[in-house]
Amino acid sequence: MPDVQKAIQAMLKAIHTPAGGRPAIAPRRVVCISRDCGSGGDEVAKLLAQRLGLEVYDRIVLDRISKRLDAEPETMRAIDASSSQLRDLWLYSLMTGQDLSADSYRRHLLNVILNLGRSGGVILGRAAHLVLARSGALRLRFTCSPDVAAKRLAATEGLSVDVALKRADEVNRARAQFVWEQFRERIDDPRTYDLTINTDHVADIGKIVDLLLEAIDLVGEPAADAP
After folding, report:
1. pTM for the full predicted model
2. How far apart are CA 41 and CA 200, in angstroms?
3. Contact 122/57 with Cβ under 8 angstroms?
4. For the domain 3-15+44-218, what is the CATH code?
5. pLDDT tens for residues 42-71?
6. Looking at the chain, which terminus has fewer C-beta neighbours within 10 angstroms, N or C?
């Protein structure tokens, strides 16, 4: 097991260990959503959170990491857009005296997501599906084919199909790179999700949410002998 995964398990155990000796399941519902650009994952997150009475956590993850690191929000947004910039944070740290190393960033990322997992909510991206893999969270992946994503972006944002296709590809590559560099996991590995939904032929987001409201009650802590 990678060192990062061992660290996650140790932090989960440290949060709260009841009499049974297992990490406590979050007291409120937690949903982790990973999504391809243009797949409709953001829209599902908003509607699902509304139906469950939960908050959607997207930029707030970055805001909390920025606060913990005492760093400029612009720096965190740059890291969020391209995790390869984590390699260059040593220069920023040298100039400011702040600890913005890749290890420090990862440590605070884990802490922020674990804390959000305890309070409940719908967490978008940031590899939350890996951090909260054994917390009882429902882990979802939304995907779609490139041409469908391009048509959706072109229609909603007034872009040409070619520009939309390029933008979706850049966003998806950045998200996949972030997950790989932080956790050495493939963002599209089906084994790291409870449910993966291809939205190519889905027009009604409400019906997806209805499905998820039923699925969320089926997810619990993995059995001790589960892989």
Report:
1. 0.73
2. 12
3. yes
4. 3.40.50.300
5. 999 999 999 989 888 887 776 666 666 665
6. C
